[in-house]
Write a structure and sequence with these properties.
mainly beta
Length: about 475
């Protein structure tokens, strides 16, 4: 593959070094345009056209605050770069007129772009008229030159194959032969963007740590990672929420009309260790009781059985009235303080039949549906899920308490139940939990843990039974 770069000028032309960069696609023609002075000042907001060799304009762009331009040209061939500007000019003084006169007299030869800048009447040679025009411009007698205000290098670029070209060009003002002009740049430039340190966060939410720009507007953008949400894209410390177990790349961009400064940050959201509190809500109060939380997989559960309502005797059914009613095992309120209340299905549901309803749970929580219980079981591993959910030891379970490890942090106690006759059974032997999923008009699905097995059993029981309730976060 070959890249041929030729320069087409009507006079002698000075061109910066051309660097060929291999292995690039688009943009494949790019470079920087600077002023012909000692500082090589970048020329902002000058127009660059990509043309065919016959003069047809294919693409037009303007340089950024660093004088950079770029084009994406995918067709092989020869192209011409044409640069122009309407920016303010300067640098014209009596010394420039003297330099032009010396050049005419052969005392100080000019070459390249400086020679072209001296030909202010565009006659293709230097004479006393050029010197006089420069002096008149300096004195304010004329406002422009016959040749105009700006002169730039131009060049032809021949593309062959998949190779990119970096071509830097110079520009200057007509009449500024000593290069004293320093063109104004774009103001204000944006403050440097600082996206903050990379973060590894347990959970799904964090606050970003971008800087507040003095100049420009900051904007957050998610570059990679699925399921992320930035609450306020222009807030440097916005809340960011994503999916646990996912890494995200975000950029904080500070932009003015001149330019954009960009910085990148990586946010990695990790799953908390099994049995950890739910992020942001380790505990809460409800109905005068304090409850802890536990995160198991992506589900946030109450860590204790619900204990809400007024105790009634086990011989009576709970009824649809303004009160939440509960049973305490053996009609002993102290049992509710340890094991939580026992509830008939309809009372728990607050007489709704909608699966997943809030029921007697606090705001923001609901009665788990059967699928949510099954997701918990599947996450823990079906064969040993019950053991991973049971409290260790025999304080609240019968001797053996088979397979109990409680590595999930669920901490199920052997709460027993109230049967259809109003009797209490199986304290420390079993822990049945209601789901909000009906099986029929008189029965519903429950999940049952027992002291003699590490498994968890799904059964269907009459709604009149009194079981324990655990709420799950919405």
């Amino acid at each position: 593959m070959k890249i041929l770069i030729t320069l087409t000028l009507t006079t002698l032309l000075f061109v910066d070094q051309v660097t060929i960069l291999s292995g690039q696609t688009c943009p494949n023609i790019s470079g920087q345009i600077t002023y012909l002075n000692n500082a090589a000042t970048p020329l902002y907001d000058v127009q660059v056209q990509l043309r065919t060799t016959t003069g047809e304009v294919l693409q037009t762009t303007t340089t950024d605050y660093l004088g950079r331009y770029s084009f994406c040209q995918t067709t092989e061939g020869t192209y011409q770069l044409k640069v122009s500007s309407t920016r303010p000019v300067g640098g014209i003084n009596s010394t420039d007129a003297l330099i032009a006169l010396w050049a005419f007299m052969g005392l100080g030869p000019l070459t390249g772009l400086t020679w072209r800048a001296a030909d202010v009447n565009l006659s293709n040679y230097l004479n006393t008229t050029d010197a006089l025009l420069i002096l008149q411009r300096y004195a304010g007698a004329i406002s422009t030159f016959p040749a105009g205000n700006w002169v730039f290098e131009t060049g032809n670029v021949t593309l062959t194959g998949d190779i990119s070209v970096l071509l830097n060009l110079k520009g200057t003002c007509y009449g500024d032969l000593d290069g004293t002009f320093v063109p104004a740049g774009c103001t204000p430039l944006p403050s440097q963007a600082i996206a903050g340190p990379d973060q590894t966060v347990i959970g799904t939410t964090t606050n970003l740590a971008g800087n507040t720009p003095l100049n420009g507007t900051g904007t957050w953008t998610i570059v990679s990672g699925m399921g992320g949400t930035i609450l306020q894209i222009n807030d440097p410390t916005s809340s960011f929420t994503g999916t646990s177990g996912t890494s995200y790349i975000l950029t904080w961009s500070v932009s003015t009309t001149c330019a954009t400064s960009v910085d990148t940050v990586e946010i990695t959201l990790t799953n908390p260790p099994m049995g950890s509190s739910c992020p942001g809500i380790p505990s809460f109060s409800y109905g005068g009781q304090s409850y802890n939380t536990v995160l198991i997989g992506t589900q946030c559960w109450m860590k204790e059985n619900l204990n809400i309502g007024t105790m009634i005797n086990g011989s009576s059914n709970q009824t649809n009235n303004p009160l939440i009613e509960k049973y305490c095992y053996d009609n002993n309120p102290a049992r509710c303080n340890v094991y939580g209340g026992l509830y008939q299905w309809n009372e728990m549901m607050q007489y709704s039949t909608t699966a997943g309803t809030q029921g007697i749970c606090p705001n923001g929580w609901h009665i788990p549906i059967d699928e949510e219980w099954q997701n918990l079981v599947d996450y823990l591993g079906s064969e040993l899920a019950g053991g991973k959910m049971k409290e260790i030891g025999t304080i609240h379970w019968f001797h053996q308490n088979t397979g109990a490890t409680n590595i999930s942090g669920f901490t199920a106690l052997g709460s027993g139940h109230r049967d259809e006759s109003g009797n209490f059974n199986n304290l420390n032997g079993a822990a049945p939990f209601w789901s909000s999923s009906e099986f029929s008009s008189n029965s519903a699905i429950d999940l049952n843990l027992v002291y003699s097995s590490a498994q968890i059993l799904e059964t269907v029981q009459p709604k009149i039974y009194g079981f324990s309730v655990r709420c799950i976060k919405n």
